[in-house]
């Protein structure tokens, strides 16, 4: 009887799993639904490129993928993007929670029904195994965050899903949509004049005018529309530079959070290894105490263990805070805790300052955006100068003439009137035009000064970061080649002397504390070096 009930419950669980699959498919979307740009974080995102020659081409729109896995383009600085398959989050459980009476509704009442259930269960085993494999594949990307992943993995996820990047890309698209608006001719004007009172209608020698219609089209001075299009094109370049700036900022934030996760994890591992060593020393102290030694050594060892436990608690809190920051950048659920790999993977030391400055001139998004602003302001200055030339207007007029019996003119023939008009604006207010030219010129000069200030700030930042990175590299070499190896040898000798009762426990603990401090400092130096390189990478804008 117990086996039969288990079979019934198994069938109910399968039914719930089937219902869950149906609900998931029904909620997944409809081909006839409204188009929502960038509405899904699983959409394939490609970086829009804005060129100076032709900015009127549409940038690639994100295309939502109907499958559970989506292809995201990994963004690299100055390199062609590589395609990788990344799932940002597992499927959500959309099924309603099971109530207490749900199991009893489908419970079989006869032995035959129970036997039929067993046969159906045997036929559905293969389908259940396949469903379980699919579920495990869906949860794999999230489970990967609980294991160690390299920093590039988290960067690709953040760049593919962060809403601020999506918003910036939409601003680029919006700017590009302005180009056909500003380069088009103004809307033509149609006028229709009629006389509602028959006796008061205008009459000419040709007869009574029943209707007058006119069609007019404004034509700006040549080169005005093209200049407006060039201005909007520069605005699109400015928006694209903002996209790249946000990408660099998010990349730096992900890397800094990742390095903090790595440091906390590494420090916890060092302290746990040191705790095992202190446990061994405590056992030696207890053995010496039993053989007639002092109890002070045992108490010191126990106190040292408590101190290490306190450090582990503090580092665990620091690790959880860093994981929360990284998960927020990845747009991941709060329950997911990203982990770093054991190897930090620090890149090579930066090159010389002159080479970094040369690359920053070409790659830094802020400098590129300001350069585009200068080009835009120059186009605005050109448009201001073009305002001294008139705009034109052409029109067509048609008058409907009637020669009814009640017309006044005896020679009325009823021929309609057709005329063509030509007009122009009169730009006579020269002071207004000259003021516009001066305004555009001053804005151009202001942007050039901003560019110089930004360039100087970038130079100073690169010098500071490069000096910091060089000092950290030198410190790493000193700690790895000299300080830590010599401290380890000193600790080995201190342990041997303590076992041979040739030194006291206080000297042994001091040597052990120095080794623990040096190893923790080395981990901190490595994380700081990686962070400095990340800041240099963001300042330069492309790989150095």
Automatic annotation (TrEMBL):
Keyword Manganese attached: no
Residue segments, region Disordered: 33-80, 119-148
Start-end of Polar residues biased regions: 136-148
Key words, A-Z: Cell outer membrane, Coiled coil, Membrane, Signal, Transmembrane, Transmembrane beta strand, Transport
InterPro entries linked: OMP_efflux, TolC-like
Name assigned to this protein: Outer membrane efflux protein
Bias type Acidic residues, positions: 119-133
Coiled coil residues, start to end: 298-332, 437-482
Listed GO MF terms: efflux transmembrane transporter activity; porin activity
Family the entry assigns: Belongs to the outer membrane factor (OMF) (TC 1.B.17) family.
Signal peptide positions (record): 1-31
GO annotation, cellular component aspect: cell outer membrane; efflux pump complex
Pfam families tied to this protein: OEP
Predominant subcellular localization, coarse grouping: membrane
Origin superkingdom: Bacteria
Compartment(s) of residence: Cell outer membrane
Record flagged with keyword Heme: no
């Amino acid at each position: 009887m117990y086996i039969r009930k288990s079979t019934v419950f198994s069938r109910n669980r399968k039914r719930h799993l089937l219902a869950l699959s149906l609900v998931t498919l029904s909620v997944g979307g409809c081909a006839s639904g409204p188009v929502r740009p960038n509405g899904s974080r699983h959409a394939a995102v490609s970086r829009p490129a804005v060129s100076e020659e032709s900015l009127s081409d549409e940038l690639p729109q994100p295309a939502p993928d109907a499958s559970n896995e989506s292809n995201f383009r990994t963004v690299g600085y100055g390199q062609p993007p590589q395609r990788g398959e990344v799932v940002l989050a597992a499927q959500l459980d959309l099924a309603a929670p099971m109530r207490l009476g749900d199991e009893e509704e489908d419970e079989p009442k006869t032995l035959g029904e129970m036997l039929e259930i067993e046969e159906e269960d045997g036929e559905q085993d293969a389908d259940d195994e396949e469903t379980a494999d699919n579920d495990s594949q869906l949860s794999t990307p999230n489970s990967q965050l609980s294991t160690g992943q390299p920093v590039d993995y988290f960067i690709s996820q953040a760049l593919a899903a962060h809403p601020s990047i999506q918003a910036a890309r939409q601003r680029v698209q919006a700017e590009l949509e302005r180009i056909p608006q500003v380069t088009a001719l103004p809307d033509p004007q149609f006028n229709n004049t009629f006389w509602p009172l028959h006796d008061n209608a205008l009459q000419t020698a040709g007869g009574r005018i029943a209707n007058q219609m006119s069609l007019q089209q404004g034509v700006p001075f040549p080169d005005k529309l093209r200049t407006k299009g060039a201005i909007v094109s520069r605005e699109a370049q400015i928006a694209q530079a903002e996209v790249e700036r946000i990408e660099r900022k998010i990349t730096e934030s992900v890397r800094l959070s990742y390095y903090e996760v790595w440091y906390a994890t590494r420090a916890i591992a060092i302290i746990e290894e040191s705790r095992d060593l202190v446990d061994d020393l405590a056992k030696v102290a207890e053995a010496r105490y039993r053989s007639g030694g002092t109890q002070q050594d045992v108490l010191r060892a126990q106190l040292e263990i408590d101190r290490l436990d306190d450090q582990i608690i503090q580092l665990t809190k620091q690790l959880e805070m860093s994981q929360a920051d990284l998960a927020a950048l990845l747009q991941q659920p709060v329950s997911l805790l990203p982990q770093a790999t054991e190897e930090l993977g620090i890149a090579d030391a930066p090159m010389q300052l002159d080479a970094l400055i040369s690359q920053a001139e070409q790659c830094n998004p802020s400098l590129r955006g300001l350069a585009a602003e200068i080009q835009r302001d120059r186009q605005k200055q050109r448009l201001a100068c073009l305002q001294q030339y008139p705009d034109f207007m052409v029109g067509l007029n048609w008058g409907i003439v009637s020669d009814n019996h009640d017309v006044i003119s005896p020679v009325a023939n009823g021929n309609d009137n057709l005329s063509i008009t030509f007009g122009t604006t009169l730009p006579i207010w020269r002071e207004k035009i000259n003021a516009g030219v001066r305004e555009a010129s001053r804005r151009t000069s202001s942007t050039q000064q901003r560019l110089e200030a930004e360039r100087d700030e970038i130079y100073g930042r690169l010098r500071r970061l490069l000096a910091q990175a060089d000092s950290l590299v030198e410190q790493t070499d000193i700690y790895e080649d000299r300080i830590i190896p010599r401290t380890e040898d000193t600790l080995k000798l201190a342990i041997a002397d303590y076992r041979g009762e040739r030194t006291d426990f206080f000297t042994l603990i001091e040597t052990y504390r120095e080794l623990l401090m040096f190893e923790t400092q080395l981990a901190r130096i490595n994380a700081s070096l990686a962070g400095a390189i990340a800041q240099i990478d963001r300042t330069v804008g492309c790989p150095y």
